[in-house]
Amino acid sequence: MRIEFPNPFKAPGRWFKGNLHTHTTQSDGAHTPQEIVDRYAQNGYDFLAITDHDKLIPLDDLDPRGMLLIPGEEVGVGRGELGSSFHLVLLGIQRPISAKSPQAVIDEAREQGGEVVLCHPYWSLLTLSDLLSIDGYIAIEVFNSTCHHSIGKGFSSVHWDGLLAAGRRVWGVAVDDAHHHFNDHRPDDVCVAWISVKAEELSLEAILESMRRGLFYSSFGPEIIDLSVEGGVIHVKTTPVKHITFASGAGRGERWTAIETETITEAHHTIREGERFIRVECMDREGRWAWTNPILITD
Ligand SMILES: [Zn+2]
Ligand SMILES: [Zn+2]
Q1: Residue 299 pLDDT class (50, 70, 90 cuts)
Q2: How far is the CA of 81 from the centre of ligand 1 (A)?
Q3: What pLDDT digit, counting tens, does each position of 232-253 carry?
Q4: Pairwise CA distance, residues 257 & 240, whole Å
Q5: Which of 151, 181, 282, 297 has its CA 20 to 30 A from that of 193?
């Protein structure tokens, strides 16, 4: 059994917290670019990607308030089998993207040294075939705050497991897709979710490189404190949660639920024959989740 897991909990460096998907008044967001930067900085974030629709806005005039600001853009292109378009967040690009098909957009962004996240597949009602029809994106949004708060379609773990079961090496990110849109029965979507990246320094190249390697986890509540893989056993420690799941392929995996105690803070799983990937997810008593990247298993 060969295990591939670039373990962020054992890698050198420190943790940096960031949001990868953010809109401003330059597209359909309600905060100006500086207002949104201020809010994320005040809430303890270390980096923020500004990703307005079809617009790569200049960041030089902004006061980053100590954060790393990542240039970006969100594009909607192509047509999935149910008729909706692919939304792609392009991170670390240098020039606006001119390509018009999902694969060409991904290729053009990567040629510029950037990386691509496939956005909110559940909200878009993209199918697994749609997701398998393109490649080169490093992650999908396993959670999107504004999709969750607006229409209850924030979770895309089913899509992620489909990709992993099909043998794709793709990560999951939790993002806000912040617009500062809210009302009396819909919470604000700013400063809800994040990824925690393990990197040597807070620079665009260091953060992107750690993301390429999968050295991060995602959350909108619980923290994952440690994860080890030794002798075919995965052991995870978290802040107090209601359940911890080792998610895998069809009919496989394992869940630990707090039954005799209010919460649990650790769980373990022995990798079984036929499990090609295991990723850990957990939910706290307030219904907030966290996700690790997958541990990939080959013979
Ligand atoms: Zn979108
Ligand atoms: Zn968006």
Answers
A1: confident
A2: 17
A3: 999 999 999 999 999 999 999 9
A4: 11
A5: 297
d(CA 289, CA 173): 12
Q: How far is the CA of 279 from the centre of ligand 2 (A)?
A: 26
Over residues 69-105, the pLDDT tens digits come to 999 999 999 999 999 999 999 999 999 999 999 999 9
Structure tokens at 117: 């996240």
pLDDT at residue 188 in the model: 98
pLDDT digits (tens, 9 = 90+) for 148-165: 999 999 999 999 999 999
Cite the DSSP H helix spans in 184-274.
Answer: 204-213
- The domain made up of 2-220 has a fold known as TIM Barrel (3.20.20)
Question: If you measure from the C-alpha of residue 25 to the centroid of ligand 2, how many angstroms do you get, rounded to a whole number?
Answer: 13
Domain with CATH 2.60.40 in the chain: 221-299
| Ligand 2 geometric centre to CA of 74 (Å) | 6
Which neighbouring-strand residues pair with 257?
A: 243
Q: What are the residue ranges of CATH 3.20.20.140 in the chain? A: 2-220
Angle at 76 between CA 72 and CA 81, to 5 degrees: 140
Which ligand sits nearest to residue 28's alpha carbon?
2
Q: 57 with 36: CB under 8 angstroms?
A: no
Span from the CA of 121 to the centroid of ligand 1 (angstroms): 9
- Check if the beta carbon of residue 276 is closer than 8 Å to that of residue 253: no
> To the nearest whole number, what is the mean pLDDT of the chain?
98
CB atoms within 10 A of CB 272: 14
| CATH architecture group of domain 221-299 | Sandwich (2.60)
